[in-house]
Amino acid sequence: QVQLVESGGGLVQAGGSLRLSCAASGRTFRGYTMGWSCQAPGQSREFVTFISWSGGTTYYTDSVKGRFTVSRDNAKNTVSLQMNSLKPEDTAVYYCAATSKIVSRSPREYDYWGQGTQVTVFS
């Protein structure tokens, strides 16, 4: 079983930056595509980004393009989400997830999920 733990969330002023990290433990996530989703209170979980095992393929939802960057360090079993130019609309719990599929933008195809880290952006 792969265990994922997110960290790096917090309270930040609009226009600021945060860097979220996802650490994998238990079984290796070698070969897994990693994704990030977010969920605001009372809202459904929305897919944000994914990055393939090699790092060569990424996807970003339109609302974060040009502001967020996903990366991974397979030697350290970590995935990061650099969040720049943050907006109040970005406020949500952010979840890291892993899938054995080559690529996927569908949360239902992800096999493992972390518990989330809170990001709050204020004006």
Summary keywords:
single chain, 51% strand
Q: How much beta, percentage-wise?
A: over 45%
Secondary-structure content class: mainly beta
Order of helices and strands: EEEEEEEEEEE
Number of helices: 0
The share of residues in helices is: under 10%
How would you state the average pLDDT, rounded?
94
- Please report the distance between the alpha carbons of the first and last residues: 40 Å
Largest sheet: 7 strands, mixed
**Whole-angstrom Rg:** 13 Å
Query: Low-confidence parts lasting 5 or more residues at pLDDT below 50?
Result: none
Shape: globular
Q: Count all strands and give the number.
A: 11
Can you put this structure into words, describing what you see?
The chain is mainly β. It is 0% helix and 51% strand. It contains no helices and 11 strands. It has strands at residues 2-7, 10-13, 18-26, 33-39, 46-51, 58-60, 68-73, 78-83, 92-99, 112-113, 117-122. Strands 2, 4, 5, 6, 9, 10 and 11 form a 7-stranded mixed β-sheet that branches. A hairpin with a 6-residue loop joins β5 (46-51) and β6. The radius of gyration is 13 Å and the shape is globular. The N and C termini lie far apart (40 Å). The model has no long low-confidence stretch (mean pLDDT 94).
